[in-house]
């Protein structure tokens, strides 16, 4: 008895969905009709019409697959804006435009730098073509246009393993600035740059300071890569990283290999960066310090050498040293006292870096900060109160001394003490 009712229900349900299916078919037909019109308009004699059509085709994404051959032809348009729009559209169509990659690679030689930059952005969307893309991008590292060089370098960094060989070869380029660009790109390849570790370490001994600085920065990025590798190509049009390329499949074997590679990088990088801390150029010393700070707790063995440059004559180096100590997060009393002593530094940026470094510590040095509130320098007292404010509820022991600071002779100290008390007491109430 129930079977006819069940059949009737199915029929009625099907009838309810038929209009939606019909609408979907109509919508698809309308979209394809619009795409056909846009394809035809790529031949419009007016350049702005051709450009607008290419841009609109890109908006359709994968649905614009039929437009791939006409867009490839548009890469040869006489107007640069049209060529750039065509390249961008092909990138937004994505994997369904894989057949356009050879044409896009050829367009990397376009005479207009904005077109070359757009082509680089488009190539980010073709992960399976890295072997073809990487060598072509490597040739752009000495492009006369700086924005193109940077776009190529950052995109190469996003390619990961595919680009390491190309970048290693580029480190032999006669132009020092090209080598600098290649070093920056290697820094973006993460764990894959282990194959170029010897080249990066050798670059720290180059006679050109800019190369040593770039090598130190790259080593810091590579050695601080503590996560399962995922490449993130740079989008030169949006100046942002986007996870376009696929994450390698995670397996116990790959994870074990990754850990061994990371440990090897750390083993050689920390001593090498530590030796650079006495480089004759302050920019190089600061870069090495920033690199050690970026690596974090794994750079703890470098702390004695970092402390030696805390009093460097250059304020940028002192700030980098103080920041590195905060990022490494060694909360020994000796390190904490050095950070508090930096509150008296002549440079305001160094003083601010010291305050920020203290707040990063796992065990806030509240006792040392309470003692420092008796410092005769009002600037030090102000920074101590501000630091206690940032520490929050863990600085509850400082409430009495901050209450006394409400009567401080310096107005800024009184104001900082007020804010600190509000922050500490407010966080205690919320808990």
Set out the fold topology.
Blueprint: H1 2-41, H2 47-59, H3 68-74, H4 80-93, H5 101-107, H6 113-123, H7 130-138, H8 146-159, H9 161-170, H10 176-187, H11 197-203, H12 209-223, E1 234-235, E2 240-241, H13 252-275, H14 282-295, H15 303-308, H16 315-328, H17 333-341, H18 348-360, H19 366-372, H20 378-391, H21 399-405, H22 411-430
Antiparallel strand pairs: 1-2
Helix pairs in contact: 1-2, 2-4, 3-4, 4-6, 5-6, 5-7, 6-8, 7-8, 7-9, 8-9, 8-10, 9-10, 10-12, 11-12, 12-13, 12-14, 14-16, 16-18, 18-20, 19-20, 20-22, 21-22
Verbal overview:
- This protein folds into four domains: 23-123, Alpha Horseshoe (Leucine-rich Repeat Variant); 126-278, Leucine-rich Repeat Variant, CATH 1.25.10; 295-363, Leucine-rich Repeat Variant (Alpha Horseshoe), CATH 1.25.10; 369-431, Leucine-rich Repeat Variant (Alpha Horseshoe).
- It is an all-alpha fold and 431 residues long.
- Helix 7 packs antiparallel against helix 8, helix 9 runs antiparallel to helix 10 and helix 19 runs antiparallel to helix 20.
- The longest helix is centred in the N-terminal third of the chain and has 40 residues, at 2-41.
- 67% of the residues lie in helices and 1% in strands.
- Strands 1-2 form a two-stranded antiparallel ribbon.
- Mean pLDDT is 87; it is low at 230-247.
């Amino acid at each position: 008895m129930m079977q006819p009712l069940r059949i009737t229900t199915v029929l009625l349900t099907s009838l309810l969905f038929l209009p939606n299916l019909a609408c979907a078919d109509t919508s698809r037909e309308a979209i394809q009709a619009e795409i056909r019109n846009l394809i035809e308009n790529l031949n419009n004699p007016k350049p702005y019409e051709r450009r607008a059509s290419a841009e609109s085709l890109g908006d359709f994404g994968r649905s614009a697959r039929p437009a791939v051959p006409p867009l490839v032809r548009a890469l040869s348009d006489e107007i640069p804006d049209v060529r750039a729009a065509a390249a961008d559209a092909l990138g937004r169509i994505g994997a369904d435009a894989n057949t356009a990659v050879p044409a896009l690679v050829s367009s990397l030689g376009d005479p207009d730098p904005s077109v070359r930059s757009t082509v680089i952005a488009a190539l980010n969307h073709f992960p399976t073509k890295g072997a073809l893309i990487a060598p072509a991008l490597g040739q752009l590292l000495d492009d006369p246009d700086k924005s193109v060089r940077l776009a190529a370098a950052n995109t190469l960094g996003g390619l990961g393993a595919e680009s390491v060989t190309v970048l290693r070869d580029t480190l032999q380029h006669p132009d020092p600035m090209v080598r600098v660009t290649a070093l920056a790109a290697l820094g973006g390849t993460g764990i894959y740059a282990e194959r170029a570790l010897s080249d990066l370490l050798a670059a720290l001994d180059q006679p050109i300071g800019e190369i040593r600085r770039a090598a130190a920065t790259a080593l810091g990025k590579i050695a601080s890569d503590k996560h399962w590798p995922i490449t993130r190509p740079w989008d030169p049009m949006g100046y942002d990283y986007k996870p376009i390329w696929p994450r390698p499949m995670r397996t116990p074997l790959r994870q074990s290999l990754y850990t061994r590679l990371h440990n090897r990088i750390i083993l050689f990088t920390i001593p090498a960066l530590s030796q650079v801390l006495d480089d004759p150029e302050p920019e190089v010393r600061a870069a090495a310090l920033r690199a050690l700070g970026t690596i974090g707790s794994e750079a703890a063995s470098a702390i004695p050498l970092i402390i030696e440059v805390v009093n460097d004559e250059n304020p940028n180096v002192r700030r980098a040293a103080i920041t590195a100590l905060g990022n490494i997060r060694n909360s020994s009393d000796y390190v904490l006292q050095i950070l508090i002593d930096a509150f008296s530094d002549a440079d305001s940026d160094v003083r601010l870096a010291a305050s920020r470094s203290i707040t990063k510590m796992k065990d806030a040095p509240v006792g040392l900060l309470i003692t420092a509130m008796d410092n005769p320098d009002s600037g030090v007292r102000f920074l101590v109160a501000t630091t206690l404010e940032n520490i929050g509820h863990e600085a509850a022991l400082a409430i009495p001394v901050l209450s006394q600071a409400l009567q401080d002779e310096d107005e800024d100290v009184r104001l900082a003490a007020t804010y600190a008390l509000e922050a500490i007491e407010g966080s205690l109430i919320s808990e």
